[in-house]
Amino acid sequence: MSQVFEPNREFSRDARIKNMCEFKELRLQAEEDFEGYWDKMAKEKIDWFEPYDTVLDESNAPFYKWFNGGKLNVTHQCLGRHLKTRKNKAAIIWEGEDGSKRIITYLQLYYRVNRLANLLKNKFNIKKGDRVVLYLPMIPEAAFAMLACAKIGAIHSIVFGGFSADALRDRVQDAQAKLVITADGAFRRGKPYMLKPVVDEALKEGCECCSKVLIVQRNFEDIDYVPGRDYVYNEMIMNESQHCDPEPMDAEDPLFLLYTSGSTGKPKGVQHSSAGYILWAQYTMEHVFDVKENDTFWCTADVGWITGHTYIVYGPLAMGATTIMYEGVPTYPDVGRWWKMIEEHRVNQFYTAPTAIRLLHKLGQDEPAKHDLSSLKVLGTVGEPINPDAWMWYYNEIGGGKCSIVDTWWQTETGGHMITPLPGATPIKPGSATFPLPGIMAEIIDEDGNPTPKGEKGFLCITKPWPSMIRTIWGDPDRFVKSYFGDCKKDGKPVYFSGDGAMYDDDGYIIITGRTDDVINVSGHRLGTAEIEAVLGHHVNVAEVAVVGKPDAIKGECIFAYIVLKGEDTIGEEIEMIQELNKLITKEIGNIAKLDGILFVPGLPKTRSGKIMRRILRSIAKSEAITQDTSTLEDPSVVTTIEKLFNR
Ligand code: WTA
Questions:
Q1: For 589-599, how does the pLDDT look when each residue is reduced to its tens digit (9 = 90+)?
Q2: Alpha carbon distance 211, 180 (integer Å)
Q3: What is the pLDDT of residue 583?
Q4: Contact residues of ligand 1, CB 6 A cut-off
Q5: Statement: 518-647 belongs to CATH 3.90.249.10
Q6: Do 383 and 353 form a contact (C-beta atoms < 8 A)?
């Protein structure tokens, strides 16, 4: 059994939740009076324009409604209401990769957002409910754009900068976005890179919905401008008023879409609400990171992912905190960059991904000791399971053995943390996300809906709705129901299934065991194997393909493809094929989905009905013994052949 680390006593004394008694008391309150619990929270935390009628409306489950009838604007929660007490406080501290800095106070941020909101309304005719795609680097303008949309009730959909033109086009089309906000480019590893040409390529065809592009100049490289379509932010923003009234939004009005991968088909536009989402962002910032008025909070994610949405922008700003935003990579100009930044900004809470911890551990084991990291109080991880080695290094070398590590389990669909330690209360164990937050009814169940015994893997389900849950998949409510409420039942009623497996250890701690579906997690990025397979299948020489995750020491998992080529004459051209296939992936999805390994095989293991037995392929990629019965396969010998080729 793994070691248990008690929270730092001094820290606990000042924490919002100070011990397990307080934690259990909250959990009990939520269990005894579920709606009352959320009602209290929503009244306490949200500055409503108009009160809501009902806390939870379950009449059209699983299309749950929270705080229905209430009116608010998320930017009032994040900016407007702070002006009385925090107008000169730093809202965003931004650091460019080249070391340049911008400090934006709450008042300045408020004005910037208002100017951009006015620009969107007046020059681009963006109205409540319109979709705006943001394809932006890590610059403060990304936050301005998110909040400007929220201010006027437009729905933003951020596309991560690592996605290709084809992927961007799919997302613009699916959301029927009217406008794309982008930048000329930014800096990475000390060099400029470009974004605008990707937008040009994406909008070349099939995007009639989108007639305008707004460009932030960041790296000032030469780009082409399409007259009548392209506009420069830096020039236009000067002419707009810094006053703008917030649009009163219904609690359930969508705040944003964020596309994520599922096990089948194209990416899903996860739709989040206004009130439930912002409540959850703020609540988890307060409880899970225990951020105090003078603290400096740093989440290293990209704003293109849900972690960046909730824990760089919405969460910290909703609670009136100071949030750090960093443009570049952790290894520029050297592997001490992040530790130097923590020292310089006196960062108090630091939130990152296991993959980054593993990388920095490997490349710069002794770097942290060169910096004063004593300001740190809470460390967080997210995105994938963290291995005990990386956990211990993080705990001892970054946290100096005095900071709790909050291993937060959650998903794009959950909006914010779900299962996580509370830093002042929970005794932590390396590799465990510990317990669900109060009010989150997470259970691990088997195929029949019964709780699994300790030590046995089951399906991780959330058996009651929660305020920040996904509301639907944009434009595809049936897929929403099927994807999340189709697989697991409790007491005969469909419940939310996360797609993850999990188990309880002997002490009832939750251990996340990873995806049970065909989603792989590469450096904390979620990728659907079906999407990658579809792309590879487009190559003229590919007859069949199966993609699985293969363990990787740094990335957690990497992408491994088994490929059956068409015809004899392609044998011997494998090296060129590898290059061509990766080019195809880069074009249709982006660099983040590049293949790390390809094995050309004569056939794939299939059942007699033609279904590919991916579990066998996964076992081979993991170098595990094959435990499945292979006798029912169409051609059992293919398994031994593949194993031989793999081990060659
Ligand atoms: C995985 C990221 C283990 C999980 C916020 C989940 C984790 C998927 C953890 C969601 C964790 C996230 N321990 N696994 N602490 N956190 N995951 O939507 O498989 O990008 O389903 O959201 O990441 O990824 P997503």
A1: 999 999 999 99
A2: 9
A3: 95
A4: 260, 305-307, 382-385, 407-412, 433, 498-500, 512, 515, 521, 526
A5: no
A6: yes
